[in-house]
Amino acid sequence: MNHQGIRLLLLAAPGLLATSALANYSADWQHYRLNGESSRQLGDRVTEVTYELSASDAGAPYQQLRVYRRFDWQSTNLDALAEQQCGEPQLKVEQGWQIRYLSCEQVVPVGKAVPASSYDFGYGLRQGRWEPLAGTPTAPRQDTLPLAERLVLGHSERELDRCELNAEGRCAEQAWQYRPQDWQQLSVLEETPNERDGRLEQIFFRLQPVTGSQAASQVRELHVWRQYSWLLDEAKTQQECDEPQTRQEGNKIISFRMCRQTLPAGSEVQVVLKDTGYQYPVGGSEWQALPETSEWQESRVLNRPIILANKEELLDCRRSDGRACSEPDLPDTDLLDAEAAKIVQDASGQPAPVWQENYGHDDHKLLVVSRGIQRLLAANQPAHPAMKQLLEYVRAHNYYNYGKHQEDGPAAAEALAEALTALGAHPLLYPEQATDEVGAVIGAWSIALHGQFRSPAVQSRFGTLLGQFNQMLAYSTQHASEINGRHPWATGLFDLLNFIDFASDYATPFAADFRQQDDELRKQLHALGMSELALWQGRDGADLFLLNNVLDAYTRLYRVARYTRPDEAEGYRKQLDDSVIAQIRHHGLIPGGAQSQTLLDDMSLTLSTYYLTYTDRTSEACISGDFAGLCTPIRMEDVLPFEHTCSPTLRLRAQELTMSQAEGICRELGAEEQQFHRQMETGGQPVADDLNEALELVIFDSSADWKRYGSALFGGVSTDNGGIYIEGDPARPGNQARFFAYEAEWKRPAFQVWNLRHEYVHYLDGRFNQYGSFGHYPLNRTTWWSEGLAEFIAHGQCFARGMDNVSAHPANERPSLAEILHLDYDKGGEMVYSWSYTVHRFLNETGRGGSWLAMAQALRGPDQEQAMSAFEAELDQLIASDSEAYQEWLAAELLPWWEANKDSDACKGNDSSH
């Protein structure tokens, strides 16, 4: 049995011969030579190969080695490796018929590489004694075993043709007929192959019957075109690339190389063949088409490479100023002063500096931005690209100041309110042609105002601003055919309609303005809903995104009316209902309407679970009243009928689970809860003021069902994720913490709830570690703790996705310990989940568990300032004393461990998303 290419790997560590320790069996064979090998079968599909080796130099720890490699190929699908082998045609007689047939075997040929699992063990001879080799038996590994002899898996016969025997036992005369794989009676006069892209596409054959054959009595000549259709496995391709080149395109210098995806020579491929053509019959006067033939498939070994695809690979792209082409084009800032130009630059790109907390969101910058807006307006440039970036700064400014409950100074607030009002009034913001820039600025104008509604300067102008909002709605409706489906307008209109959403939170100061503008406001919203924009042309066809937002705006107006003039609320709601019904009838969105069933179902879902709910009704209004027959009641108990109590602290609600599946979830999370308390040393004691005694786990049947029903049934919860934990306010009596998840439908028939263990850790961390609700502590200090802890507890050592991310980064690209401990969610998934995980593992595997538990203890304190002081002291100490140790541990311990264990069954199977 020949096993060429198989090598045994032994390592003699420096100084090994001077000790009595056994040499570890590992990845080096430089001190030995192979003298011989033999094999034997230990079972049906278990083969053992014995290797005899001797020392080749004085550095070898042993004089001789005897190594046994055991191959287990019981689970190999031999049928997939087999090929059919047939002999020459044979004859037999059965029940008055002479049958010509082929006898065939399904054979796995000798030398075929069979996938197998293998491991090594063995002995070394030293000073006259045989000793077991240290490090053996080795861990099982994926391997291949060349078969020593062919395996016959089965026999079959394939009939070629038959004839009925006459009284004399001979075949009756039969007309000859062309068969693609039976050319015994034909000779080739001419053969012309045609190729394309390095592969045979067609061969033309001119054929003539052999003299004296039956074919010669039927036809004089044949023309046959044999078509080749190649079945090429792209997984076996190799990439070949030329040397890098450069070219200039405008002001950009592009570095690239040309690459080819090829199947190399020697590859075994399948090809489908089919013959078509014509024959000239004996005694005939014109060519006749050959009879219809069937396709057949053959295996071929390529004698030269086949090119599957050519592509240009971009290596680098630089502008003439040296900036990467991927960086956004910076708006022209010639119209602005230096300070405003700097803010425009800082608001561009991702991540934009203006979104950093320490950027300085102060009155001075707000005045600079307001002055910049006015300068662009004075130059009649309301939709100038720099305008959106100035408004982006206002958005970031509002975000940080609102989060800290800071008020802008009167002068800065007044200047900004004046600038935003002037922008909304500028006539060139409403040009004859609706450009994408206009849509972007309209949306940015609305967002800039969201955070300013508490400002007295804006409140004094709200009536004017509301009139401008109406004008923007009217402009969008007027240009519906131009803007439908354009992405900047999708974002712009979404942000614009949120104007009503945010403004409705200020019912008291805005009550008079809302009432004065109400007729016009409802008129413009109705017109927008009646326009073709209601059926927005999205990437995957028509959708109801804009109509749904119009309905949302109606619910906000209803709440303002109910709060400010409750005696008119019912009549006001009737006016809104009439508008909604007119819109859905106009667009054929009623049951049996002209739209697709998907749109009809979506409309029914929006009405029953959103519009009716937020106008103080239930989905039962779909049965009686004005909405009767226009929607279907969507009830929690109908969508999520399955309920099960795991324990006093965990309840399940699901679309569909078997009792076995539910009990499996209960056991898994119960074990994780015990592990959490043990590792975190909580003593099972919740933090103060946490009344979330029981978590409700809601499980949908699929990711599609989660997106469809999640927001509708649970008050607008975000569904653009893989599941989410909503803690709520744990100090509020009656608060219900919920974890939303769904079954990973792509795993079926295996059952797996996606995201299960990770999100459950968030519940445990929030109840037993972190005081208060989500965001109680600064996220740029605790994000690494929350997300890394969830991955660490949920996945242990085998966090496959995270470790793959970490191992892909060379040493010079790895983040520092300080960067991880100070990250926020905007740093991206790899930092938030993968690198945060490594810090928790570092603390627990390197004797720093005391610091880890001290952080947890600090977060449990109800005094926020005291808690963060203690927590940050631990962070500062880690950064000061352990930053270098963390990097050394990564390089010397964690990454080598992962390289050695990533292909284990435990790690390969751990693929749950965060």
Automatic annotation (TrEMBL):
Q: What is this protein identified as? A: Collagenase
Q: Which organism is it from?
A: Aeromonas lusitana
Localization terms from the record: Secreted
**Keyword Hydrolase listed:** yes
Example of a GO cellular component annotation carried by this entry: extracellular region
Q: Which domain of life is it from?
A: Bacteria
- Which residues are annotated as active site? 759
Kindly indicate where the leader peptide sits in this chain. Answer: 1-23
The protein's UniProt keywords, in alphabetical order, are:
Hydrolase, Metal-binding, Metalloprotease, Protease, Secreted, Signal, Zinc
Q: Name one GO molecular function term.
A: metalloendopeptidase activity
Cofactor requirements of the protein: Zn(2+)
Pfam families from the UniProt entry: Peptidase_M9 (PF01752)
Q: What is the lineage of its organism?
A: Bacteria, Pseudomonadati, Pseudomonadota, Gammaproteobacteria, Aeromonadales
Quick one: where is this thing mainly located?
Answer: secreted
Gene3D superfamilies hit by this protein = 1.10.390.20, Collagenase ColT, N-terminal domain (3.40.30.160)
A Gene Ontology biological process term: proteolysis
